[in-house]
Amino acid sequence: MTIKPEDIYKIAPHHRFQWEKAQDCYVILFPEGMVKLNGGAGEVLNLVNDNLSVEKITEALTKKFPDADGIDKDIIGMIEMALEKAWIEKTN
Amino acid sequence: MVEKNNGVSSNTTATQPLWLLAEITYQCPLQCAFCYNPTDFDKHTQNELDTESWIKVLRQARDLGAAQLGISGGEPLLRKDIEEIVIEASSLGYYSNLITSGAGMNEKRIDALKDGGLDHIQLSMHDITEEINNFITNTKTFKLKQKIAAMIKDRGYPMVLNVVLHRYNIDHIKEILEMAEGLGADYIELANTQYYGWSLVNRDQLMPKKEQVLHAEKVTNEFRERIGNKMKIFFVVPDYYDDRPKKCMNGWGEVFMIVTANGDVLPCHSARVIPNLEFPNVRNTDVKQIWYDSPAFNKFRGTDWMKEPCRSCSEKENDLGGCRCQAMLLAGDAESADPVCSKSPNRHLIDQAIKDTENPGLEAKPIMFRSNKNSKKISEGEEKERLAKFHALP
Known about the structure:
The complex is a heterodimer of chains A (92) and B (394). With 92 residues, chain A is of the alpha+beta class.
């Protein structure tokens, strides 16, 4: 699936995205599983969880990490990975 | 399981309990021949923790990092306070799972659990035929399970089915998968029987032949290929037919913590079979102290406890020497290599069990169902002959 700037995703049904204080990271919880997300993936999914479009997510993270090269490609990569894992789904 | 993937943290060095299993009662109306509960559960049915104590446990474990909660048993729905416990679990941020046979569930309770924030229900199923379902559970529960499955789907829970595989149902694997698809299951766990507790007592009767296992695996893979992401299929391999042991519980005291009905805390379901280990109890010890400081939880952490051939084995980090309880039950030494490992000097014990699957005389012996009466019999030493080849049972 091609990821377009206007696409908006959401956390898939039966999955829960939350911050885990004890692990100091975001996690995704689902039946029989828990995945700890690294910093970048956590940041992206946190904005997905806020119903932002891919474009808005890129804007927000570029502003937050101005020195990161190729951040737009990283974001697309993470969304593709989350889609493949069925952690998120498209809403529009 | 904690998955390690692209974009996923691989830092697993800091041990924290991620999974809390609350074995809230050992009472169960079903009498499954493969139950992993202790054969002497009869001794542990008194003195169950009350609601308040469970809530305290949930809070302490959550502070420590536990995020997945399994509410199990016995049959947890025999307790009247599951709804209250679920409300607390939800407010603490657990992803909560009720592991049930379906007995004790009704419209009112399933709605109350949903309102309370229960995330999913894992329903045990046994076969596509009423005959095998009723035989292996020693109860007439086939229709009940079909009804509860529909109720779970109707209420919008993820449909998670668990089917324990043994020689009576393993050849029906295709039909079982089709049944799950028909019920709209999101997940199905095909759990080959692991031999602990009651299933070990009944191993001669339950263990499938190698060709049955290979066939089941092949059919499962073909089905998985066809169905893709629509239904996730977990096939829990039977370790006896492997030549390397499983990394049991993902490591002793690494991610799992089990609190039993009377408050004893165990690193795995069967840990009580290991002699000279005193398991701490939540009535008098804080969960944090239990996890980090108790001798029981530290006993088999890491690799320092290992003997040869594990100690110098290049693969020791992969499987951490396998299962301590299996080493105890089969070889009589909890510090020895899991006999499943082909490098273990005790591998012949597993090979004999495999050979025994071809012996119809052994299979023909009656099953000992998981009942209070049989538990009492075992506790009182009445079944010595049957259990003689295993160590530390019950």
